[in-house]
Write a structure and sequence with these properties.
Number of strands: 24
CATH architecture of the largest domain: 3-Layer(aba) Sandwich
Radius of gyration: 33 Å
Shape: elongated
CATH class of the largest domain: Alpha Beta
Number of helices: 21
Length: 653
């Protein structure tokens, strides 16, 4: 018995020693490790999504800003058994497919996001359901109140508030505020019961653009209208200040809504003004003539024999749209003769021509403060044969981005000085300190000031009656510009038989340019010539822009341009379904278009169909030309106290 008692006592003593040893190991050896594990069960530290700074236009209008939001998440293992009954309700409140909600709730993971960046009113509806295992955390949501306005320039952010495209990406280090953290404690069900520290950081920097919201709206509206009426595949517009090279507007169609970028294809989100290039066609002839004048290889009045429409170069034949005999250099630009341009190019020589094109900024990035810019394509002159020099003289075999071409023409408007384009004027801290600023940055003097003035005078003749750009004329203003029509490359090789790019680029007022405007229409169906499709877009945008900016007309010439007031922007309550949107407006005048509804639009219709439609609407009709309607004017003629509307239609093949 004593031996048994001793054995039991020994076993108890050994067990006690093991317990004491374990306690010592836990309380001394593993003390710090266990303390951290314990703290991790009831304490939590979370990173707070930084608040991005606002992006505003040149007048202080907010184009992008961040608002408080919530991100909903679930712990699937903690959901109630009857959660299936809540799937239709959750899908409805969150505007999500029921299948997506069901997949989240049935996930095998311990933590799954249900929807991120939810507006507070949506989150409150979900919280009111009181579903265990479903909770939220505070975050920020980026809002673009004008929706598609300037979307390709602004860009967008991801769910973690990081800039992915446009200004949001280029200036991400300024827009993304400092990271902060929250410390708190949780109960046994992992619900927050105490939070301390880590308040939301204030908005740190505000980015001010050179963009003008009103000019941007004018450009987008007129471009969209032109693309729709010409049944084109796409289009783009740039408005540039030639005195500073500040970008005042940058529009493209199709576009996207940066509030929901995932709903649009990548092609719609890409800024094609800087990331796509095209052969400029006849718009390059102005740079050719400017180079030839500056190099003293030609004078404005020099005769150029244009071979009556067919010019043989080796095994190739160059054609003009209309046959011409002898034209002056001025006439080559005015009539846009390919043969005349080819002979000027041959007189200038491939090395000099290449050097001038390079000096104008072709074949290299403009260094604009936007991501994704490409350099275009300007092959080395050493690889140019005679036919390549000839085709390059009228804009074929050389590829430019729209911004490159706009900057080259801005140099013509800026007395020959090329400058760096920019879209951000300054970045201001929350205390009002300017931490970064952009301004006019000269690059090089491309041509002499006298040459720039001479080429602008020649380009005025292009817009005069008889010139290819006559539809760009604006009453009371001297306009200088150039039309362009180029063939698109066929993916199978060579040039497309039907694909065309119509363009017009001009400056106004020609004597002291305030604006350089480029309009590019990709694959128009109703007509293909730049003078028919793109010149009216320039005219409509320039006309309203001049009125808005208060630019006076040329001395001795009357103008009917009046500004009806800036567009009014509604202040709808912020939600997922509403946003601020521009209201329709137009520049008033005796010769202005009346209305913007489909009932008033005749452009793109055949002349016969347009006359039938106008007659049915009780309009008096004055028609000129044949083919498809390219321009319309509605006059309000007051007779015997009654308003009588007279419709003037202009058509072209």
């Amino acid at each position: 018995m004593s031996r048994r008692i001793g054995l039991v006592a020994g076993m108890l003593g050994l067990g006690l020693l093991l317990i004491i040893a374990r306690l010592v190991h836990l309380t001394v050896v593993q003390r710090d490790t266990l303390a951290q594990r314990a703290a991790g069960q009831y304490r939590h530290r979370e990173t707070v999504t930084p608040q991005r700074g606002a992006i505003v236009d040149r007048n202080g209008r907010r184009l992008a800003f961040s608002v408080g939001a919530e991100s909903l998440y679930v712990h699937p293992a903690k959901l109630p058994a009857d959660v299936d009954n809540m799937i239709p309700v959750l899908a409805h409140y969150l505007s999500l497919p029921a299948q997506q909600v069901d997949a989240v709730l049935r996930s095998s993971k311990p933590f799954v996001w249900l929807k991120r960046g939810v507006f507070p009113q949506e989150a409150s509806q979900i919280k009111a359901l009181n579903v265990s295992g479903l909770d939220s955390k505070g975050t920020q949501r980026r809002v673009y109140p004008y929706r598609t306005l300037a979307a390709s320039l602004l860009g967008f952010v991801n769910v973690d508030a990081q800039g992915l495209e446009g200004i949001e990406k280029a200036y991400d280090r300024y827009l993304l505020g400092p990271v902060s953290h929250t410390l708190g404690e949780r109960d046994g069900r992992q619900r927050a019961i105490l939070i301390r520290g880590g308040a939301q950081p204030p908005e740190t920097f505000r980015v001010r653009l050179t963009l003008d919201t009103t000019l941007q709206y004018v450009a987008e509206r007129e471009l969209e209208r032109a693309v729709r009426h010409s049944r084109a595949a796409a289009g783009s517009v740039i408005i540039l200040d030639p005195q500073t090279f500040a970008i005042l507007a940058l529009a493209q169609v199709p576009t996207f809504d940066p509030n929901t970028p995932g709903d649009f294809p990548p092609a719609a989100r890409r800024n094609r003004v800087i990331s796509d290039y095209y052969e400029p066609g006849s718009t390059l002839k102005a740079l050719l003539v400017a180079a030839a004048l500056d190099a003293k290889q030609v004078n404005e009045t020099d005769p150029i024999f244009c071979e009556h429409g067919a010019y043989r170069v080796g095994g190739h034949t160059i054609h003009d749209v209309h046959p011409y005999g002898e034209l002056s250099v001025d006439g080559v630009l005015t009539k846009s003769s390919n043969i005349g341009a080819a002979k000027i190019g041959e007189r200038l020589g491939k090395e000099h021509y290449y050097d001038y094109l390079w000096a104008f900024g072709l074949g290299q990035k403009t260094s604009v403060d936007l991501p994704g810019e490409i350099s275009g394509d300007l092959p080395s002159f050493q690889a140019w044969s005679r036919i390549k020099l000839v085709t390059a003289s009228f804009g074929q075999g050389v590829a430019v981005t729209p911004l490159q071409l706009a900057c080259a023409y801005a140099a013509l408007a800026n007395e020959g000085m090329l400058m760096r384009p920019y879209v951000v004027s300054e970045i201001v801290s929350s205390t009002g300190e300017v931490v970064h600023a952009n301004g006019p940055t000269p690059i090089r003097q491309v041509i002499q000031s006298e040459t720039a003035q001479r080429i602008r005078a020649l380009l005025e003749h292009v817009v005069a009656p008889g010139g290819t750009g006559r539809r760009a004329h604006i009453q009371g203003f001297r306009v200088a510009g150039k039309t362009g029509t180029s063939q698109k490359h066929d993916p199978r090789g060579g040039y497309s038989e039907t694909g065309r790019i119509a363009s017009f680029i001009g400056m106004v007022p020609a004597e002291q340019p305030r604006l350089v405007i480029l309009a590019v229409i990709d694959e128009p169906k109703t007509a293909t010539y730049g003078g028919v499709v793109a010149a009216p877009v320039f005219q409509a945008i320039a006309r309203q822009s001049l009125a808005y900016l208060g630019v006076a007309g040329s001395a001795g010439e009357g103008t009917d341009i009046q500004w009806a007031g800036s567009p009014q922007f509604s202040t709808a309550k912020l939600s997922t379904e509403s946003a601020f949107s521009p209201e329709a407006y137009s520049a008033a005048g005796d010769d202005s278009l009346v209305g913007r509804s489909e009932a008033d639009d005749f452009i793109g219709l055949s002349l016969r169909a347009a006359m039938r439609k106008a007659s049915a609407n009780g309009l008096q009709i004055v028609a000129r030309g044949s083919g498809y309607v390219t321009d319309q004017r509605i006059r309000n003629k007051t007779q015997t106290g009654e308003a009588v509307y007279e419709l003037r239609l202009e058509a072209d093949e």
